[in-house]
Amino acid sequence: MTPEELSKIATIEQEEQQQHKHVIQVCVAAGCLSSHSDQVKDALDKEVSKRGLENTCHVKGVGCLGLCAAGPLVRVQPTAKPDAAVMYQAVTANDAADIVSSLEGPPVKRLVCPTNVPFFTRQKKIVLENSGIIDPDRIEEYIAVNGYAGLLQVVSTMRPSEVIDEVMRSGLRGRGGAGFSTGLKWSTVAKGRGSTKYVICNADEGDPGAFMDRSVLESDPHRVLEGMAIAAYAVGASQGYIYVRAEYPLAVKRLKAAIRQAERAGLLGNNIFGITFNFSIDIRLGAGAFVCGEETALIASIEGKRGTPRPRPPYPAESGLWGCPTLINNVETFANVPPIIRNGSAWFAGIGTEKSKGTKVFALAGRVTNTGLIEVPMGIPLREIVYDIGGGIPDGKKLKAVQTGGPSGGCIPEQHLDMPVDYESLAKVGSIMGSGGMIIMDDTSCMVDVAKFFMEFCRSESCGKCVPCRVGTAQMHDLLCRITDGSGTADDLTLLIELCDVLRATSLCGLGQTAPNPVLTTLQFFKHEYDAHIQKKTCPAGSCTIHAPAEVI
Amino acid sequence: MSPQPVPQVRVVTLKIDGRDVGATEDETILEVARQNGIFIPTLCYLDGLPSIGACRICLCEIKGANKLLPACVTRVQEGMEVTTDSERLTRYRKTIVEMLFAERNHVCAVCVSNGHCELQSMAQKLGITHVHMPYRYPKLTVDATHARFVQDDNRCVLCTRCVRVCDEVEGAHTWDIMGRGIDARVITDLNQAWGDSSSCTGCGKCVHVCPTGALTEKGRSTAEMVKKQQFLQYLMQMREAKQ
Amino acid sequence: MSKPRLATAWLDGCSGCHMSLLDMDERLIEIAQQVEVVCGPYVDIKEFPENVDIALVEGAVSSEEDLHRIKKIRERSKLLICMGDCALTANVPSMRNAWEPDEVLARAYIENATMQQQIPRTSVPRLLNRARPVHEIVRVDIFIPGCPPSADVLYFALTELLAGRVPDLSSRTRFGA
Ligand SMILES: Cc1cc2nc3c(=O)[nH]c(=O)nc-3n(C[C@H](O)[C@H](O)[C@H](O)COP(=O)(O)O)c2cc1C
Ligand code: SF4
Ligand code: SF4
Ligand code: FES
């Protein structure tokens, strides 16, 4: 591949797209697929060819359009006026004829999904900029929207250290949970000993309810490949791995196709863009253990060992895969890299807050009107996410708490709703940014029960290597079960609090160290609910089944 | 200018419990502490086996570090200030050992390792007189199918010494861990009976590195069932000398 | 000043701890001179008395009667001392805990019985679901591990207590000792 060839592909693709008067984008990401969007796409295809419109109307499958709850989603866009696009919701195969008939006239009213609402207007798309726009199975479409231009720019005009400086200046922080400076991590790997280095993309996404990374991989896989290639150039690696959970078959399929296309196009492999830069990517499948998302466990798993964490230091950046310096970043982290290179670090650093730059993708779920995938600028007030983008709490219920960070995170109460969503503010209230799960809870949720739910998750996902997490999560889960079923005592609560401290301080990896967070935040903000279960044997939210306080011995 | 000769391993000085000590930078805190007669309790660690930092009993406070670090795997650094013993560390260590007692069915009075058990003596050393969390009483099995050895899951602390010695020293990899979290347990081969194991060489190394009565020799009385672990250091030294 | 009132109690244990007490031999006399022994298997009193200063408890809490008694002992004693592993870990009695009481009773009285195969339901106290260490039921002041704690350890513990000190037993005894 030469720079000229790349721009030729882009031009041809753009011209081809201009030939169609209309493009109909059908979401074929996992959410809409589960409500049979593939059948919708087939029906539209048939309808278009039945009417002989193949040359003027192009039906294509695209990645996630965001408002998953309203799926299957279809977007009809006049090529000449992209802004005049119409979005349809809950489309079925039977609607195909009406949609095709309406191409030249007014939209199909009964299906219209308004897009001038805060759910769409308040979002800021960087990572998801191509989601729902391009066909994830075609590299040409990615190239047509400036894809691989960042990689070209990097290998043809920048030295590796300049790339690292650029990423450092952008202020990008890891999106996999801890929020470590990406530039700093890259420079540690670049400085690492030896000539063999690896780049790993962590796509093990295991938080219950989280599907941000999956959506990126399914909607725009080349973006992740490009980010990895740029990273490989910067740190001096020639082999990369994407560790993706086997429960994401569609993401795996699209990634495989994308890797093949990129290899064929000479964007992966040897002598990329004609210089002596070689980089190949292989996929490794995870077998569904949450702990394998922890970087050292993930590396052990790639090495073919049992996926258990090991103590750090040494960090993977010094000694990772097969003892070599290894860069491991999250999917979303890599997905941010191409636009940072293309648009410059100053552009990226201009978005967000002082210490948290850019955007964050969240999977909005729970008791909120608009559930789905959203991307918002860092620092956006939590209230805006819940009430503007999320559309508030349905059924006239009252908001009780917002859970972020999954099993490592915490429950943020209503009183903190005006806080900005960034790494530091979330940590201040005892939660974490995490990878992007966000669950809205109303007053029918019992906070002790929520803590119990996450502790059960940690208990069953603990790898069992270290004592405090292995035994502690089981003990804490049992204590929470006792409290929720009404047999808990004041001593149980004391022990629960003590174990929170022990697990936090002594567990080997992040799973055990953060497992107490849901308990600690609910204790901090909703202690009265614990007291009600223990002293009055009642559940204020009315969701726990309290047994008669018999002497259970 | 000719390049300066670079020493292979650098010598560092650090403080352990307020004492100035010297070490080389490839040594762990535990090794340096032991050389200087400073006791740090350990359980999963065994001299001669690769350390894994799993039991968390050797955790120490390091000045400037925001986390407690396991002495058995943490390498010393120039200027490091280590505290091996404090009220907080003792409290954590006690709780962790109590967790092990609560996890399985350690009935010392009727164990063949009574009096020669590292878990038992650790409890004594730490001053544990009772376990302040609920016992779990899991239903576990005893595998007595092997001609010479017995495996009793009730007394296993999952230190994986058996797994490591079998894999790294004997080279048989008969032992491994099955399941995760509180359900994890050691197995032979693919969870077959030990007596049916085709990989076990019957060397007995696992029995002698096991800190508790989880692995024992058949037909031994409590007084006789003394574990002999010196073989390991000897073997490793001889192997190194040969290389 | 009157002598401290000492009581001993025997819950679900093998009586080994009480044997160990007797093993103090002549030192028993020395102790007896300093205390008033008000209750215990050696004293023919059915009801645990009031105003006990030191209560030495052997055995786990395994039956409804044990439960009832330990609560009374706690109420009526200034210092409650767990004597031996059964009291402080539930020890051998706890080996039934992985099974339900009915399974255990069936095993003992039916499967392994050669005659009179029936589970006694009357005139014996009902088993609790689990045999439990005393401190899980009531507050305990001092723990003396051992199975049984040796006569020396018990003598040391008692003399220290009588001298007004909390005995430090960690170097003298342990679980299973
Ligand atoms: C129990 C556990 C699970 C984790 N799971 C994930 C995961 O699914 N995806 C991920 O990117 N990071 C996960 N992490 C964080 C990784 O260890 C690592 O920090 C991250 O991949 C680094 O990438 P980043 O710097 O781009 O965030 C997990 C950490 C822990 C402790
Ligand atoms: S904290 Fe939990 S998951 Fe992490 S190493 Fe320990 S047991 Fe395994
Ligand atoms: S059997 Fe013994 S050596 Fe093996 S893990 Fe259990 S306690 Fe450790
Ligand atoms: S001895 Fe160091 S963690 Fe077990």
Can you give a write-up of this model?
The complex is a heterotrimer of chains A (553), B (243) and C (177). With 553 residues, chain A is of the alpha/beta class. Chain A is 43% helix and 14% strand. Chain A contains 22 helices and 13 strands. Chain A is globular, with a radius of gyration of 24 Å. Chain A starts with a helix and ends in a 17-residue tail after the last helix. The mean pLDDT of chain A is 94. Chain B is of the alpha+beta class and 243 residues long. Chain B has two domains: 11-85, Ubiquitin-like (UB roll) (Roll), CATH 3.10.20; 90-242, Alpha-Beta Plaits (2-Layer Sandwich), CATH 3.30.70.20. Helices cover 25% and strands 16% of the residues of chain B. Chain B has six helices and ten strands. Chain B has helices spanning 29-35, 87-103, 118-125, 161-170, 205-209, 230-242; strands at residues 11-16, 19-24, 59-62, 69-70, 81-83, 142-143, 149-152, 175-178, 185-188, 215-217. In chain B, the strands form three sheets. A five-stranded mixed beta sheet of chain B has the order 2-1-5-3-4, with helices on one face. In chain B, strand 8 and strand 9 (185-188) form a beta hairpin. By secondary structure, chain C is α/β, with parallel strands linked by helices. Helix content of chain C is 32%, strand content 20%. Chain C is built from six helices and seven strands, in the order βααβββαβααββα. Chain C has helices at residues 16-22, 27-34, 64-76, 85-89, 101-111, 151-162, and strands at residues 5-10, 36-39, 52-58, 61-63, 77-83, 127-132, 142-144. In chain C, the strands form two sheets. In chain C, strands 2-1-3-5-7 form a five-stranded parallel beta sheet. In chain C, helix 2 runs parallel beside helix 6. The chains are: A alpha/beta (553), B alpha+beta (243), C alpha/beta (177). At the A-B interface, helix 18, helix 19 and helix 20 of A face strand 4 and helix 2 of B. The structure holds flavin mononucleotide, iron/sulfur cluster (SF4) (2 copies) and FE2/S2 (inorganic) cluster.
